[in-house]
Structures are given as C-alpha cells and as structure tokens.
Description:
Elements: H1 10-17, H2 20-31, H3 38-51, E1 55-59, H4 62-72, E2 79-84, H5 90-97, E3 101-105, H6 116-125, E4 132-136, H7 148-157, E5 161-165, E6 173-174, E7 177-178, E8 185-189, E9 203-207, H8 210-219, H9 242-253, H10 255-273, E10 286-287, E11 293-296, H11 300-309, H12 339-347, E12 348-351, H13 359-373
Parallel strand pairs: 2-3, 2-4, 4-5, 5-8
Antiparallel strand pairs: 1-9, 6-7, 6-10, 8-9, 11-12
Bound molecules: pyridoxal-5'-phosphate.
Amino acid sequence: MPDPIPLVDLQAQRRRLDGRIERAIARVLDHGRFILGPEVADFEARLAGFCGVAHAVGCASGTDALLMALMAWEVGRGDAVFVPGFTFASTAEVVALLGATPVFVDVRPDTFNLDVASLAQALDDVDRWDLRPRAVVPVDLFGQPADYAGIEKLAASAGMSVLADAAQSLGGRLDDSRVGALAAVTATSFFPAKPLGCYGDGGAVLTDDSGLADVIRSLRVHGQGADKYDNVRVGVNGRLDTIQAAVLIEKLAIFDEELAARQRVAERYAAALAGVVETPAVAPGTRSAWAQYTVLVDDRDRVAAELARAGVQTAIYYVKPLHLQPAYRALPTGPGGLPVCEELAGRVLSLPMHPYLTAEVQDRVIEVVREAVG
Ligand SMILES: *Cc1c(COP(=O)(O)O)cnc(C)c1O
C-alpha cells in the first residue's frame, strides 16, 4: 500500500526552508533574549506590513489574542457577545471567561461563516436575556473571510464592536484588503497547523488603533505600565516567545508563495470533485487562505472510514457545534436555534490540504473520494 496521505505536511515545509529555521532558532539560543527579544518586534513589523495594518502585537496564542482584545474593550458581565455556533471553542470561551455572555448565531450553508440575517434576529431578541449588545466575533472559517461589510453595518447600527477571529484565515483577502485589515481588531493564531504556523503556540492582534495596540502590549505583560513591576490594569502572561517569532520570520518570507500553492490545490479539488461532493463556495471578491478544504457529503462517517482505510487522512471540523457542547449548551442562541450549524456538523469532511500537496498525490485523494462516494 502507498504511503498514507497526511492532512498537513509540516516536514515538507521544513525541507523547503532548508535549515533556515534551525539557524534562526540557534541565533536566539546564542543571544538568549527569550522573552520579548528582538525577533518579536521584527516579526510584528513584518506581519503588520504584510496585512496592511499599523500594528501587530504578538501573543502567546490565538486564544490569548481574542481574550486580550475583549479585555481591552472591557467586555464583562451583562454584555452579549455574538459568536457563530460553528467554530472552535476559543471564540466563545474567551467571552465566557470574562463573565460576558456568548450568544450563538447561525452560519450560512454555502460559506459556513456567520449569517448576517441570523445575527439580526439574535440582536432583536437579546432584550429577552437582559443583556447589552456589545460585540460580535465573526470567524473566517476554514480560511474564508466572513461577510464583514454586512456584519459591520449591523454592528454599527447596534453600537457593537467587531473582533475578527482570523485564526484560520491569515493571508486571505476581501477585495483589495488582507485579513487583518477587515475589522477594527483582528485576532489570529500561529498554532502549527494554521496557514502561518509556528513550532508551538502563538498568535497576534492586528489593528490600526494605536491606543488599543498599547493596551494589548500592556495586557500581555500583566497589565504593565512604565515597567513590568508597575501594574496599571489586570493583565495576563500573553507574550509571543522569541523562538516562535524567529520561526515565524522565516515562514512569513515564503507565505505568499504557499498561499498561491494552496489556491492551486483548492482549484484542482474544485474542478475534480464538482458533482461528486459539495465543494466549498467562495464569496465574490474573496480569497480564502485555505486552512482547510472542507466538503459536504452525505453518509459522512462511512466516507471518512473508507478514506482512512485507503490511507487518506481526513478531519471533521466540527463534530459538534458549540451551542450543543456541555460547557455552552445553557447559553442563549438566536430565535429558531442554529439549524445550519447542526446540519453542517453531520456532513463536513476536511481533505488533505497544504502547499506541498503534489498533483500526483492529490489525484490519489480525488480518486479515493470518488470511489468512497460511489
Ligand atoms: C485555532 C483557533 C483558535 C485558537 O487559536 P490557538 O492559537 O490555538 O489558541 C481560535 N479560533 C479559531 C476559529 C481557531 O481555529
């Protein structure tokens, strides 16, 4: 049997970088400034430039980036923060940790992203819960930017702030703007399997707002003021490690090339799998970062099992929507519940997707999917 085909292939990327990461890490070991060393500010400047925003603040994880953005806005008890039900736990977790209430809204069946009509209904209904609408956290699921124009308009009319959860979409675009510049504040993640991943945990907040960037720089070091033993607010330990920043500088240098390769892989899948499974829709003017290539199939668990038997690794993001998870099921949802989230959870299947997937290997995946679907 041929080699198994992994969902992502970080070793192929490491070979492509040909010792550059090892040398970058060695430089950090030599200078020894492991906490907020020079590579952190260097990476932040490069990332801000890449995204076209004034500030990038490196964080310990994508979750901390989301958390600190909400902390900077002083989100707390009595506040409603609207989040899609079909996402990773972090999006709602950070809201609940601050004592605010996540209100789950439904997603669109075509893009899997937050449904503006569902958000409008949930907003109309929020009085019932005695909550103050405070913020919305759209998620760019699987790499595709959400409908920021529609969300921003509705948020502005309700006096809410927009925090983009771009953990999966760094490198994506909407018209001429990159992810990072699509909302007032954006949080992203450098978890190893994300489009721009480091070799551990990492994340960043992106914004044009200098005051907010300063508050987040303070929050990530225990709410420091003039120095770290001057605590002007309650903060966290939320810094990006120097070693991770050094890794990210090397990976950012080839990121545009990798995004183009992901796009080619996505286009080949779309052409070969049309009519076999439901392939993902990309909204007009939008460029996905293709963190995942997620298709919809009936009889998903059987198809996934057949792919596994043929040596093709797949994943299910997400088996259970957040509003049905034990930790979150007592929380409010928009009126009518979240039927699209629930349907998607039973039909999604993510196929191998990374910049180093060759046409030959991809053709094997395609063939196995065709056979499994029958
Ligand atoms: C990965 C992810 C996060 C969290 O990022 P971490 O760096 O793992 O903390 C948040 N939201 C979404 C949608 C994610 O996919």
